[in-house]
Amino acid sequence: MTQNIDSVLQENRLFPPPADFASHASIDETKLQALYQQAEDDHEGFWAKLAHEELSWNRPFSKTLNSDNAPHYRWFEDGELNVSYNCVDRHLADKADKTAIIFEGEQGDTRHITYAELHREICRFANGLKREGVECGDRVVIYMPMVPEAIIAMQACARIGAIHSVVFGGFSAEALKDRIDDAGAKLLITADGGHRGGKLIELKAAADKALDSCGDSLRKVIVLKRSAHDVAMKAGRDIWWSDAIAGVSDECAPLSVNAEHPLFLLYTSGSTGKPKGIQHSSAGYLLGTVMTMKWVFDHRPDDIYWCTADVGWITGHSYVAYGPLAVGGTIMVYEGAPTVPDTGRFWKLCEAHKVTIFYTAPTAIRALMKSGDEVPSRYDLSSIRLLGTVGEPINPEAWMWYHEVIGKERCPIVDTWWQTETGANMIAPVPGVIATKPGSCTRPLPGMALDVVDTEGNSITTPDKGGLLVIRKPWPSMLRGIWGDKARYIETYWSMFNNRFYVAGDSARRDRDGYYWIMGRIDDVLNVSGHRLGTMEVESALVAHPAVVEAAVVGRPDDIKGEAIFAYVVLKGARPQGGVDEALTNELRNWVGEQIGAIAKPSEIRYADNLPKTRSGKIMRRLLRTIASGEAITQDTSTLENEAILLQLQGKE
Ligand code: WTA
User: Fold this and answer.
1) Contact call for residues 125 and 152 (beta carbons, < 8 A)
2) Which amino acid residue places its CA nearest to atom 12 of ligand 1?
3) pLDDT tens across 559-597, in order?
4) Which of 132, 210, 268, 550 would bridge with 173, disulfide CB 3.0–4.6 Å?
5) Shortest-distance Cα residue to atom 25 of ligand 1
6) Rounded Cα–Cα distance for residues 595 and 545 (Å)
């Protein structure tokens, strides 16, 4: 993301918290300083106090952190609780009739679900899962549209101690199959379809295809009826959601589980071809989401909180399905695309449902900005009091548009840096106190020991000097490992500095004021529209095509997506005349779509007789990135085996 780095290097604007916001904010300067001080003085004591105060325990813990087997840390390990109880039951005494979920489908259908109703639906579905043989510790894969039942399914798993693994509905059958097999899932929850972008997404058909070639762990499929079209149901395996809950009790006692019991797995991309199942805990994870709902989102009882993320991503876990419910909030859930029927849909939803906190991705902001100021100006956005972004660096231009056109300069913007692995926001402004700068996620939150270090692991104190983003101390919502692969957990996150600190995989710099600026990934991970994708994943998909011998994939800066996928391909047969073969390009793009999902389709494919390699056979990725971005080649290419292919790669021959 070279574009962003260049522009943010010159960014000096500072926006103090708007006075009106600051005067009502629940955390002021004094409180924030006290939090920082407590965390600094006694890291474990700080988190222990919050865990006791903020979570409801069945059995309180006596031991805060176990580092005996570091970096396999364990938090609150002799405590017991239930996450679903914490998200729903504990609010029933005073909030039974409060709306928990406001839902709107892409086609405009709406539903309001109170905490009492949510409780009943979760209990019934949990009883349904039990009846289908799901037990504590079993893995359940959820492949659903963005409807309340997706959240109900997640919460129902949590209620009975089943470990869910949500697979984004945009992923293909092939990707779903890999995740079901890796998790050894026993049951799949899906729907007959979902509405997105004006189309019906055929989730059940994709699930059927995945199950055709799955291993034998999977026994049952529960299918939610969401659309009017018919789907095939396999006798003995498939059961409708309505039948799964027919005749069950409205009550299901939440199972008391250990604090460290895995709450979920969520697959994410790394630098190898195989996605990794990030494993999160119950208590520590929940604590991270609760604290950040308070610190970063300044959550209040009357808020209508809308995080636009799908539950298929970590943001949809922490800031849709868990965090906001754990604090007794009202969330807005929207099924569809921001552009249906037009680019005013998000703003229309904000107006109609009186959204007060709006949290989305820079890519969405950039796309909506493109359609002009006139579109949002048609809607009353005065209910909004706080704006947020997540997923990738936001360029100052988009930040300013968000600030002026959407926030009307009244709303602080919380730019939140975090990852699937961190579970909760790590670097973000506390909005009533910390002044913001367009493009910076500002400062680490209390108890989050972030640092920028050089390759030796020394903290970089020189302002604006880039380095590696690391986390020096364990934190409660940290990942507990990679499912089924202990070695990879150490190797990916810890081995670089001998297990001393967690290596995030991002590069960053700190400015004179100690503000953090994220500069990009240090590994081969792309960020396409805020979604993480490994270059290797796309490469393996390409080479799996019969016509392809070799492929190299890099990111190219893109105005809307942040990064677009650029693929260089070597074919088995002759290179197409002039390097152009539209039919094959389309075929390969669709092929990648089938192997992974539409988000992974390359924007551009270039054919060459060979890839640029060093004499030792390493693909020169930096060179490919330069070529993809259309910049002049400054690298030394004299070591190339075959310099002539440069012209082909540049599309000049
Ligand atoms: C990037 C999403 C800059 C970063 C929650 C990180 C960001 C990766 C920001 C994690 C931000 C996320 N500013 N970059 N505010 N937030 N990133 O696991 O590269 O899907 O490592 O989690 O997104 O992506 P993931």
Assistant:
1) yes
2) 391
3) 999 999 999 999 998 999 888 899 999 999 999 999 999
4) 210
5) 419
6) 10
Residue nearest to atom 7 of ligand 1 (CA): 392
Q: Which residues contact 491 (CB under 8 A, 6 or more apart)?
A: none
Distance (angstroms) between ligand 1 centre and the Cα of 103 equals: 27
- Whether 401 contacts 387, CB under 8 Å: no
3-state SS of 34-66 is HHHHHHHHCHHHHHHHHHHHHCCCCECCCCCEE
Instruction: Answer whether 225's CB lies under 8 Å from 203's CB.
Output: no
**What does the alpha-carbon distance between residue 71 and residue 80 come to, in Å, rounded to a whole number?**
22
Q: How many CB atoms lie within 10 A of CB 643?
A: 11
List the residue whose alpha carbon is closest to atom 8 of ligand 1: 419
Q: Which two tokens stand for residue 595?
A: 């192997």
Q: What is the pLDDT of residues 241-290, one digit of tens each?
A: 999 999 999 999 999 999 999 999 999 987 777 889 999 999 999 999 99
Find out whether 393 and 363 touch, Cβ atoms under 8 Å. Answer: no
Distance from chain centroid for Cα 411: 24
Q: Is the pTM of this model over 0.85?
A: yes
Q: Is the CB of 471 under 6 A from ligand 1?
A: no
> Which residue do the tokens 């961190």 mark?
422
Tokens standing for residue 76: 């609150």
